[in-house]
Write a structure and sequence with these properties.
Number of strands: 10
Radius of gyration: 27 Å
Largest sheet: 5 strands, parallel
Strand order of the largest sheet: 2-1-3-4-5
Length: 527
């Protein structure tokens, strides 16, 4: 199925293009639309379309800038320009950006259909054609696989590794190295196709240093001049590979290893990433987990006496064991409960609760050794498995807290927990009415690349950034519709939409009725 996204600031033209796409026969799906480039880029990063149709002259971010940024994030993207300007300069710039087709307005439905079908054929042809050298250079590939095996499993000193790299005509000397591991959730008969497709992407992206650890497991070594540039390249590659393998795999579980500065340290980074992959794949398949994030969360959790917050701590001091389930549910169902959308956060929260329970049981039973208590509790509760799902996390948290409460502790230390998603949520809450807010601007604010932030945000909160932002805006719109007589155009501007018609389209899509119908319904309810 080819996912098609449309970017056009004129509503009628956008609607006519959408109608053409929706009426096309074959594997074509209209996946989204936007009235300006800034909004489009944020939405496209979540939707990952195969084809985009875009105007050139638009507010906030013009079509050329949209193409440049989108191609950097989604190199597979096919671009069709729809423009009222046929001047040589525009066409020349379009060619330099790798635009696939250039259509002039007004657009005839038959012509648009023909062009989309032609671009789809290009996609199929690129998938069918393996990179040059795939069949001719198998000896070099085998040697590289052997070299990667030696690099990952260790046993060779740095001098030998460098010498063997030179014999393979590889420049492996770099300031930074980063391992990425992939586990492919695919049926056995599909794994051969997965390996071929993965290898094709690797070669297209210039990733020479990779090793198929197993039929369903891949290790990739990336080199960079600095940590930020390397991390950006790695997440861009992860996005591309996961996109290209989606038709073969039910899930692609990914672990991003820590950045190391020495070639000899790659082996240790690989072992740590592999250990993390085994645990993540067992309880949370399909996730992208960054070892650097786990280290950050672990460091913060060491300071976190109570992961459920200060208010919960105060209530727990007065609670009985019977009160615990309701108190836990109150936290999980509150806005602060979003922090437990992350498997890793749930894991470290349970570890902290386990530690707290051990301390309380130790105080209550002075003759018992704390290590023996911890061992007994660990046998009763499989902490890592329990953190894989929210329901099992909730059950285990309740059981541990009941045991801790039954000991009536004198006090429970609690300090503020701060994580990148909490920072992002606060920023969005304060700025969602700004029409210029986007995934890119929020990612920059919290200090992550847009690709990394998009992945972390959607995994932590269970929905994409654009869906989160849209929901917040629509909730504010519902409040204004119910409590004020503001015009729809003013409400649209108030919540960050420059186009009232687009606001109405989004509102109806989420609520099932138009803003006007919602206002009438609310007014009738008050009478």
């Amino acid at each position: 199925m080819y996912q098609i996204f449309v970017v056009e600031d004129e509503l009628l033209i956008r609607q006519s293009i959408r109608n053409v796409i929706e009426n096309m026969s074959g594997p074509y799906a209209f996946c989204g639309e936007a009235s300006d480039g800034e909004m489009a880029l944020s939405m496209m990063q979540d939707l990952m379309p195969d084809i985009v149709l875009t105007d050139i002259r638009m507010p906030f971010l013009d079509g050329f800038e949209l193409i440049r940024h989108a191609k950097a994030i989604m190199p597979w993207l096919k671009v069709i320009i729809i423009s009222g300007y046929g001047d040589f300069e525009s066409a020349q710039r379009a060619i330099s950006l790798g635009v696939d087709q250039y259509l002039l307005k007004p657009i005839r439905p038959q012509e648009l259909t023909r062009v989309i079908e032609g671009v789809a054929r290009q996609i199929e042809e690129s998938k069918a054609a393996l990179p040059s050298g795939y069949d001719r250079d198998e000896v070099q590939h085998a040697l590289l696989q052997h070299y990667m095996q030696q690099l990952l499993y260790g046993g060779l000193d740095t001098a030998t590794l460098l010498e063997r790299a030179r014999s393979l005509k590889m420049d492996i000397v770099s300031p930074c190295y980063q391992i990425v591991l992939f586990h492919f959730g695919a049926e056995e008969q599909a794994l051969h196709a997965v390996r071929i497709a993965a290898r094709s992407v690797l070669q297209q992206q210039g990733m020479e240093l990779f090793y198929f650890v197993d039929a369903n497991q891949l290790a990739v070594l990336s080199l960079g001049q600095d940590t930020d540039a390397l991390n950006e390249r790695v997440y861009r590659f992860i996005t591309i590979l996961r996109h290209e393998l989606k038709e073969y795999c039910t899930a692609v579980t990914t672990v991003v290893g820590t950045v190391v500065k020495r070639l000899s340290a790659v082996c240790r980074a690989y072992k740590n990433a592999l250990d993390l992959l085994k645990r993540v794949a067992a309880v949370s398949a399909g996730q992208v987990v960054d070892a650097n994030d786990t280290a950050q969360i672990a460091a913060e959790m060491l300071e976190l006496g109570n992961p459920f917050g200060e208010s919960f701590r105060q209530k727990l001091l007065q609670a009985t064991a019977a009160d615990v389930p309701a108190l836990v549910d109150e936290v999980l169902e509150s806005p602060e409960g979003n922090r437990f959308g992350s498997t890793l956060m749930r894991y470290y929260a349970l570890i902290d609760l386990l530690k707290m329970t051990v301390e309380q049981l130790s105080r209550a039973t002075p003759g018992m050794d704390a290590k023996d208590i911890a061992a007994r509790l660990s046998e009763q509760h499989d902490i890592f498995a329990a953190s894989g799902r929210r329901d099992t996390f909730r059950q285990t948290a309740v059981e541990l807290l009941r045991q801790a409460v039954s000991m009536k502790p004198d006090h429970m230390a609690g300090v503020k927990y701060s994580h990148v998603i909490s920072k992002a949520e606060k920023y969005v809450a304060e700025n969602f009415c700004d029409p210029n807010i986007s995934l890119i601007s929020v990612a920059k604010y919290v200090g992550l690349s847009s690709a990394h932030f998009s992945t972390v945000f959607s995994q932590t909160l269970g929905r994409s950034f654009i869906n989160y932002l849209t929901a917040m805006r629509i909730e504010r719109a519902k409040e204004l519709l119910a409590t004020t007589s503001m015009k729809l155009s003013n409400i649209a501007m108030e919540i960050g939409y420059n186009e009232p018609n687009y606001f109405s389209h989004v509102f109806r899509k989420l609520e099932g009725i138009t803003p006007k119908e919602y206002r009438n319904r609310m007014q009738q309810g008050d009478q």
